[in-house]
Amino acid sequence: MRPFAYSRATRPDEAIAAVAGNPRAIFLAGGTTLVDLQRLDVMNPDAVVDINALPLTRIETLPGGGVRVGAMVRNSDLANHATIQKRYPVLSAALLSGASPQLRNMATVGGNLMQRTRCYYFRDAISPCNKRTPGSGCAALEGYNRIHAVLGTSDKCIATHPGDMPVALVALDAVVHTRRKNGTERTIPITDFHVSYGDDPARESVLEHGELITAVELPATPWLARSTYLKMRDRASYEFALASAAVALDIERNTIRNARVALGGVATKPWRSREAEGALTGAKAEAATYQKAAAAALAGARPQKHNGFKIELAKRTLARALATAAAMKTA
Amino acid sequence: MEKDDFRGALGPPDEPVTREHQEPGQPGGMDRRVFLGMSLTAMPAMRFAAATAKAAGAAATHPAHASGASAPAALHTVPVTLQVNGQERRLELDPRTSLLDALREELALTGTKKGCDHGQCGACTVLVDDRRVLSCLTLAAMASGHRVTTVEGLAQGDQLHPVQAAFLKHDAFQCGYCTPGQIVSAVGLLHEGCPDDPAHIRECMSGNLCRCGAYPNIVAAIAAIQEAKGGKTA
Description:
heterodimer, A: 331 residues, Enolase-like, domain 1, 31% helix, B: 234 residues, alpha+beta, DNA polymerase, domain 1, disordered N terminus
């Protein structure tokens, strides 16, 4: 690991100033991505600002009925929170499907939004990789690309966004709260937070350098209680998704009034499928509808040499998640 | 000389957990671990000097990474105070030092094992403020001011922790390398609570890999503790 200066911030503005003032500085939250990638020589910050002492650890219900989750809430605490389990089961399920109990005790909500891809060519610190070394090319395009994306790819990068929690947040239409060096705050809809890899695969979110995630806000919407997460992977646990689906359904008298669909493991960002939502809205809550929605979600998929199976896998995953959500009993 | 080379030269890997709790001076006298521990106490200063020199060299040969801020970083140390197994330990560390390396290399607590060093195997599991975490992906500086419990801190004198006793009784290990991580993880599981059926126990222990495949006996050991505690632990 290359040398870096370590400091610990106790106030958000202190952390923001420390990172904003040095283009090669970075925030350190749970460390589950950053420390790993530093050890692999993939990320090489000069300065690491430890934000674990920041007072951003509350989960609070807002006057309007939404829920505000502090950026430093640990994944395990969020997953096991009674309000989250009851009102946003998709979020609890997505969190519990990710990593291991130890990693969930470390990882934070803010940090998890900044998780980096598991593309092996990105992580090997050697291969051509436009994300790690802009302009160097993409080894995955001609290489072994079984785990890579089929949606949102470009001729510069086909890396998969690896997360589970962000996929659930997309299905919930969450809002990310941030703070910047001039003290201004902004709110970013989760669907605008991550960016697809177009010309600049190194850029993964709309955050500016030194901009700190302070909270994630979940909307009051009652029908989000009918939501679920389904994750398919090579082993039963402690593995990244080959395909996953986060869905929420608003059903009245067997007709779908509203739907939210997000996919993980198949796209370059947590993937909202408005096409699938369109196919569901106003339709009967039945298997044929779910299959139509699944086909719509993957209509624009572009397979690589080794990952064509993901298209059918994602369709079936989504159809099954929709059937599961429709069958849920909600209060 | 790296400690791992030292160990390799001496033959078999670390003993299973039953030996971890032998106190120096107990019957059996100076065992290999005590000898290793003594040899290592003189090493941190030397190793730090070497690491600093290596780091400075790396920065010099990689101009792209040697911005204005990186040169002083090579010489930078941070004070780290850990409450390890009830004892306050004050250290002055290179910020790159993982909690795992601080425990093993600086404090000679070699019960915690280095498996993958990338958060993929669970061998390095310790408790920080009673929650199980991976010490390989935790910088020692991040744990400063916090309580750290390693496998060495579980027994009360000669009285094994119930999880340790259950692992012995159920033969929940073979080579023993993953065992300290399995045991500490199981202690964390009992704190957190986990439904007491095998499928849930397996999921709650999914962060600890065992290449020998001792899983059935590990699950049995944990189930036995849960049963003794009266079903679901919470």
